User: Which sequence fits this backbone?
């Protein structure tokens, strides 16, 4: 075995290799540095462009030239990855403050990756990028060899602004990620100045300046003050962004989308809902965006009666017109390790970096000033004894050594003297050198004062930040809103409100007919089946069906089969007990009132909402005495003043007489459910013996008429309230016998004042 080889366990090797890989991804690829807010590839692109002279005032150059320099000199990775990173810095919908000024097709918000190939596009740096690069060669940063050791590159850029807060970033490393939203430069610089002046500032203090994230368009940001405080105090949190829109006639115009949301994808999401008939109020979709107005999505509504805000609230909840974003301020700190920063800590750390950078710049400048003063002092010696200097230079074999010995000057000063041209020996040049020395001494004194004083250093940085704010500051784009009303439509809300008549047959078959002018009795039924009951309402309401045992079952009216056919059995939709029959149906709003009763003579008034059941097996709504059956429910309106009830009575000799009682409706209680009160006096014994039972009930208004159906020769007659005065009494009385001929089963029907003729 080779003695130069060492043996380690697979476990140790895997752990070490994965750790090395993790740290590489974290430090050299995915996470930005707090100082300049750049990832390594971004930093190298900007530096390569500055080295190519592509500043804001220069001409554009092919992007391929920049990418070639980036991957050839500093970043030995794929050209497509480098170019894509460059494109991102040029897109004004991706970066709040773009760093690259692109010419050509650099993609759109709808499709950020639709940019042209790098051989077609041209680019240069923006003026904003100069804030990161202008001090690079002023001794402000450390330099390191590039990947092959042939060149030096900066380890970090000398950013004059907290770039990471201004443009934000996203990145996925190993075991961690970063998501930092962009912010407004005015707000961030104001907060930075405040922290510089007040090191003990709190997050709440900073939120007086930084209102929240700020993106490149006017889409509102949805975040409460508590959510913002939590996000900025912990460094982690979330917020929403929703589209901005206006209404033009029947059209909703969406003119700003959430950050990095795709308009075409949103239109697909809305179109999918339209195809599934979940948006019946929307009739058309269009994308009218162009170069002048990139975002203009048109959503056409069916009519001007539709509430556009409610439609948008539904779309916010079901499409990318409103998106959730998270914030995770994970950065490489000044110590070189990843850390999640709170807002105040982030600004404080960046100010520390900026102070170090400015200090290095000032010290670098001080060294330059000292060196220049040293040279000037040597040059001015020439003018003190010019003839002697000339004589030494002309006659000495080693003038350099002779000058240093004679005038006691340094080698640097001697070299400067030997490089003087004859025309610089004029008196005017001497005056210039004296003035320059005096100016440099003043500058040196000022630099030393700033370097030695922390307060002066802070003042220097504060002045610098204010100048940047004056030159680059802009107004906030994204308004902050406390909450969102986003709520998806329920199934009922998505149905257009149309008049319908719900019909149930004696065999329990159900269907829905459009309109209220339907003659339910004239519809065709299966075999010997016939009409049992019907109710009028709207197709976006809930229909409640009543069985003979007092149970209720609820179905959405719009889900019922059409009356064009025979319908379908109700038992296919609900789970009913064996032996029961379906006696009636009611429909209306939750505030609608109904009168429910049974053949034992009991009944009560209730709100329809009390009868609605969400279970297929129904809900026990009315407690019915043994042997009794529920009578079809009666819808009550505000004009109803009386209740009419009929019952059949058989005496000991077997003679049958039909009686009727009318009493004020306010004598009946409003109950949520139960047995109810007696409407008409029927003894328990007589009911059990089946000698007495209630046949029907009806509600009447003061100006309505009552049509009494019977099995006699005439079939029935319509009566006015005045003609029925002898039947009016109190609840739970026995009523009066109906006239001769009113035989068999009696049915009651209200004829409203607007209707003149008796029903067929």
Assistant:
């Amino acid at each position: 075995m080779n003695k130069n080889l060492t043996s380690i366990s697979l476990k140790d090797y895997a752990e070490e290799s994965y750790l090395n890989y993790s740290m590489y991804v974290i430090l050299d690829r995915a996470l930005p540095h707090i100082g300049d807010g750049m990832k390594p590839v971004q930093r190298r692109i900007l530096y390569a462009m500055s080295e190519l002279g592509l500043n804001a005032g220069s001409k554009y150059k092919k992007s391929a030239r920049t990418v070639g320099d980036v991957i050839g000199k500093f970043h030995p990775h794929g050209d497509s990855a480098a170019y894509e990173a460059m494109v991102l810095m040029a897109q004004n919908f991706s970066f709040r403050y773009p760093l690259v000024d692109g010419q050509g097709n650099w993609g759109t918000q709808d499709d950020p990756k639709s940019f042209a190939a790098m051989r077609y596009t041209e680019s240069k740096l923006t003026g904003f990028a100069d804030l990161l690069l202008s001090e690079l060669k002023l001794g402000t940063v450390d330099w390191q060899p590039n990947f092959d050791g042939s060149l030096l590159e900066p380890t970090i850029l000398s950013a004059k602004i907290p770039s990471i807060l201004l443009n934000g970033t996203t990145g996925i490393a190993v075991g961690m990620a970063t998501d930092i939203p962009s912010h407004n430069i005015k707000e961030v610089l104001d907060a930075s100045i405040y922290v510089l002046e007040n090191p003990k500032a709190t997050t709440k203090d900073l939120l007086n300046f930084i209102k929240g994230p700020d993106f490149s368009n006017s889409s509102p940001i949805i975040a409460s003050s508590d959510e913002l405080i939590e996000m900025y105090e912990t460094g982690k949190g979330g917020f929403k962004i929703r589209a901005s829109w206006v209404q033009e006639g029947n059209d909703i115009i969406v003119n700003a989308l959430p950050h990095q949301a795709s308009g075409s994808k949103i239109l697909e999401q809305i179109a999918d809902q339209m195809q599934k008939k979940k948006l019946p109020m929307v009739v058309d979709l269009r994308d009218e965006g162009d170069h002048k107005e990139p975002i203009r999505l048109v959503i056409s509504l069916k009519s001007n009666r539709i509430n556009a805000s409610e439609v948008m609230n539904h779309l916010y909840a079901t499409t990318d017109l409103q998106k959730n974003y998270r914030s995770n301020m994970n950065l490489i700190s000044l110590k070189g390790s990843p850390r999640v920063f709170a807002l105040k800590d982030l600004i404080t750390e960046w100010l520390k970096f900026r102070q170090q950078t400015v200090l290095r710049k000032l010290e670098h400048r001080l060294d330059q000033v000292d060196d220049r003063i040293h040279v000037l002092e040597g040059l001015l010696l020439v003018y003190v004894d010019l003839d002697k200097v000339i004589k030494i230079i002309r006659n000495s074999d080693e003038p350099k050594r002779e000058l240093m010995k004679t005038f006691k000057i340094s080698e640097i000063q001697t070299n400067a003297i030997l490089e003087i041209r004859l025309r610089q020996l004029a008196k005017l040049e001497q005056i210039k050198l004296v003035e320059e020395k005096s100016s440099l001494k003043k500058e040196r004194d000022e630099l030393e004062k700033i370097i030695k004083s922390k307060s002066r250093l802070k003042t220097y940085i504060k002045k610098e930040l204010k100048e940047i704010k004056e030159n680059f500051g802009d107004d906030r784009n994204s308004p902050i809103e406390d909450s969102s009303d986003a709520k998806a439509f329920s199934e009922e809300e998505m149905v257009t409100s149309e008049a319908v008549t719900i019909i149930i047959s004696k065999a329990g078959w159900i269907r829905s007919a459009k309109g209220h002018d339907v003659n339910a009795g004239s519809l065709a039924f299966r075999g010997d089946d016939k009409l049992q009951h019907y109710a009028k309402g709207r197709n976006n309401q809930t229909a409640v069906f009543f069985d003979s045992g007092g149970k209720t079952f609820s179905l959405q009216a719009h889900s019922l089969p059409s009356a064009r056919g025979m319908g379908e059995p109700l038992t296919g939709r609900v789970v009913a007990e064996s032996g029961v029959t379906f006696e009636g149906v009611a429909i209306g709003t939750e505030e609608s009132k109904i009168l429910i009763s049974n053949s034992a003579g009991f009944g009560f008034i209730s709100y329809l909402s009390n009868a609605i059941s969400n279970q297929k097996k129904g809900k026990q709504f009315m407690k019915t005495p043994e042997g009794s059956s529920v009578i079809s429910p009666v819808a009550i309106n505000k004009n109803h003043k009386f209740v009419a009830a009929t019952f059949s009575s058989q005496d000991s000799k077997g003679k049958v007489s039909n009686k009727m009682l009318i009493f004020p409706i306010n004598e009946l209680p409003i109950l949520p459910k139960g047995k109810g009160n007696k409407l008409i006096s029927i003894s328990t014994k007589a009911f059990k013996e089946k000698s007495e039972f209630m046949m029907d009930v009806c509600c009447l208004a003061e100006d309505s008429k009552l049509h009494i159906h019977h099995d006699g020769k005439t079939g029935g007659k319509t009566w006015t309230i005045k003609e029925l005065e002898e039947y009016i009494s109190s609840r739970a009385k026995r009523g009066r016998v109906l006239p001769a001929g009113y035989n068999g089963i009696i049915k009651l029907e209200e004829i409203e004042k607007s209707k003149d003729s008796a029903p067929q």
Q: What stands out?
A: Residues 373 and 441 are 8 Å apart (CA to CA).
